[in-house]
Write a structure and sequence with these properties.
Elements: H1 2-5, E1 10-18, E2 21-28, E3 33-34, E4 41-42, E5 45-58, E6 61-73, E7 80-82, H2 96-108, H3 111-117, H4 122-132
Parallel strand pairs: 2-6
Antiparallel strand pairs: 1-2, 3-4, 5-6, 6-7
This protein binds zinc ion.
């Protein structure tokens, strides 16, 4: 599944099929994360947090990534922080590449059609376009 997903640096740990949707449990292959304060590297995992992120369809199936976004504890300032996931867009509703694909569709159509075709709300499509732009 990791190969089929083809998202660099991301490992698929588990998959589940529910109706039309494929849910993939994924985790970043990085063992360390960097404290946002002074950039200190840490490998001490403080807790695990799941976020749900929409990704590109695979063989016409809707794909949701259940991302284990780990919280680390800084070995320097002792404060917990969440790892940065560069494949997830900032508002965390979708992967970066999914937001880019939706934005491309909007360029050739409009927000309400793209929302309808992808079963998304217009607000969500709008926020993806804003993020990519
Ligand atoms: Zn720190």
């Amino acid at each position: 599944m990791t190969n089929i997903l083809n998202l660099p640096g991301v490992i698929v740990e588990n998959k589940k099929q529910t109706g039309e949707t494929l849910i993939l449990a994924v985790i970043s292959e990085n063992k360390t994360a960097f404290c946002p304060r002074y950039g200190q590297a840490s490998h001490r995992i403080h807790q695990n947090q799941g976020i749900m992120v929409r990704d590109l369809p695979i063989s016409n199936q809707e794909v949701i990534l259940r991302v284990n976004r780990r919280r680390f504890k800084c070995e320097n300032c002792q404060k917990p922080f969440s790892e940065t996931l560069n494949f997830v867009e900032t508002k965390k509703h979708s992967s970066r590449r999914y937001a880019e694909s939706i934005t491309k569709q909007v360029i050739h159509s409009d927000i309400s059609n793209v929302a309808k075709n992808n079963k998304l709300t217009e607000d969500l499509v709008g926020s993806m376009v804003k993020y990519v732009a």
